[in-house]
Amino acid sequence: NNATLTGPVTLASPTQIRIAALNTLTFSNTVTATNQPLQCTVDATSGVVNFGNTLSLGSGAAFTKDGAGLAVLYGSSNLWASTVVNNGALRIITTNPPQIGDVVVNSGTLKIGSSTDNVSGSLPPGLINLVGPATYMTINTSNRLTLANQIIGAGYISLFTNDVLTITSSNSFSGWVYLGSSTMSSGVVDLQNDYGLGDGTSNKTVTITRSELLLHGNRDIPAALRFDISGNSDLANPGSGLRPIHSVSDTNVIEGNVRVSSEYFSGTSGGEICCDNGQLTINGGVSEVTYAGSLNLYLSGASGSGIINGVVSGSGTYPLTVIKRGNGTWTLNNSET
In this structure, are strands 145-147 and 128-130 parallel, antiparallel, or unpaired? Predict the structure, then answer.
């Protein structure tokens, strides 16, 4: 049920490629057109169409992905004017950024990289619009990336990487953000824009599991973002040595609340907030998500100054144990329960 086309393909008119009965169709040679649109329909969830070489439709053409299956770009050159994902998924596993215009995801997923270890990916340079609440963008790569795109819409973002993802853009998407999981780390997310994870116009949760959010440059993160953290620098892989919230320099502020997440989901005993240098202020409260007993809040740092202005509290049923580490200082300014 697999087929490979080894010769070059030229699209002389608007074209639909439909994968109906086959499991996988691979274009191992070039697919080119002169400003002709391409509709790629993969009917079955298990269906895949691979573009393993140049896919160039022209600077005025559009690419549309339909059907429940997957389309994969892994050739070194991809060029067209705009991209629409109506269903299923579009995956990019080439390290050469595809020139595919703005990407609109009406339903389904835009995937950067692959869940397979040591697979690289790259980001298209245009705007990414995650239109509905059932839309997603996943970044799962082994290489270092910079997210400079503006991301809008109502969808969700999941980040998993073996290296560093730097976020420089201001983003207004309203969906939640997931950094890592119980089985996969997102490595380090270097946040270089206060609104990189959301601009504060929508309440959302940012879950950080066995991963690290790196803060520097006088960040001031909006109160509408709540952080659920799980993991600490004592853990083995995935996420060995990482601290969920790590302030490394300057004066950084988290305006909202932080919750220590449960070991039931992450295999950890709590979450760590570290201020190694400069100052980190949390104006919200710090509490716990209770699913499986008592949890630890690790407050650490080499020489920085950490401040929590909100209430530090357990769930009522289970205590939240505060453990101080390192030579830095932490000040708790509110009544603790």
Answer: unpaired
Element at 235 (helix H, strand E): none
Find the length of the chain. Answer: 337
Cα separation, 22 vs 111, in Å, equals 22
Answer left, alpha or beta for residue 233, where phi above 0 means left and psi between -120 and 50 means alpha: alpha
Query: Before 319, cis peptide (omega within 30)?
Result: no
Contact predicate 123/102, CB 8 Å = no
C-alpha separations of 97 from 92, 121, 148 in Å: 9, 8, 12
251-287: per-residue pLDDT in tens? 999 999 999 987 544 445 789 999 999 999 999 999 9
d(CA 35, CA 69): 25
Phi and psi angles of residue 328, each rounded to the nearest 5 degrees, phi first: -70, 175
Residue 116: pLDDT band with limits 50, 70, 90: low
Rounded Cα distance, 21 and 186, in Å: 36
Quick: pLDDT tens for 71-112.
999 998 999 999 999 999 999 999 899 999 999 999 999 999
8 A C-beta contact, residue 172 and residue 140: no
How far is 143 from 119, CA to CA, in rounded Å?
8
**Separation between Cα atoms, residue 98 and residue 153, nearest integer Å:** 22
How far, in Å, CA of 42 to CA of 267, rounded? 37
Phi/psi class of residue 218: alpha, beta or left (left: φ > 0; alpha: ψ in -120 to 50)? Answer: left
141-178 core/surface letters (b: 16 or more CB in 10 A; e: else): bbbebebebbbbbebbbbbbbbebbbbebebebbbbbb
